């Protein structure tokens, strides 16, 4: 009897407690849900624009040429400033549509230290030549955040990189130091290279206020016989407010390789250097 009485009393207590518990659960669920989704990184549309102080290196090779031309040793290319911009539309909490745009343009005049050949045109040692490289980069893509928490996320992105690249080497009519006269000559080539790439992208907020964060990505893809692409960039950011952030970092490597063919010029281009920019989120 005492056991039965205690059991019935406990059952009555549970019946009274269950409605109260349900009420509290229903009352706190919206709060829990809101806290769970109150990410530091709240936005729908983000525009990222920045400056890139690039140090280019690598080679360019004409159609059918046997020896490539070196950007630094032959053409004397130096570091130069360029820009890059990107748009991120986060249409759900974990899904993004992305598009990136940049342009790499460098030109330099130098006296050749050795004889070079580009696109079947020979430029003798001692000639003062002008080398130009122009690479337009457009990259639409999609990203899914496999991990998203209040302080940041880790996502996997797929981009369809398109490189519209042209190169030109020219020399005006001139007389070299040994008295030899040379007529004006020039050679140019171009190609459009579509290269899909994939890799991880992350952002992590280090503090609550001020909101310091680190962000970065690694993208790459290899195509047998055609070429490959790999890039690695990291930045430190400071959120001035919920709409504007300052960023500064370093591109450790941005390497594009397109192998030369009889009907296509080839390029091995590596760029690295400091980056800085602004980020606008809405």
Determine and state the CATH class of the largest domain. Answer: Mainly Beta
Instruction: Order the strands across the largest sheet as they lie in space.
Output: 1-3-4-7-8-11-12-13-14-15
Segments where pLDDT lies below 50 for 5+ residues? Answer: 1-36
Average of pLDDT = 85
Name the beta content range: over 45%
Order of helices and strands: HEEEEEEEEEEEEEEE
Rg (CA only): 29 Å
Report the biggest beta sheet as strand number plus sense, adding barrel if it closes: 10 strands, antiparallel, barrel
Overall 3D geometry?
elongated
**What is the terminal-to-terminal distance?**
68 Å
According to CATH, the homologous superfamily of the largest domain is: OMPT-like
| Share of helical residues | 10-25%
Task: Please explain how this structure is put together.
13% of the residues lie in helices and 63% in strands. It is mainly beta. The chain folds into 2 domains: 38 residues; 241 residues, Lipocalin, CATH 2.40.128. A hairpin with a 2-residue loop joins β5 and β6. The chain starts with a helix and ends with a strand. The N terminus is likely disordered.
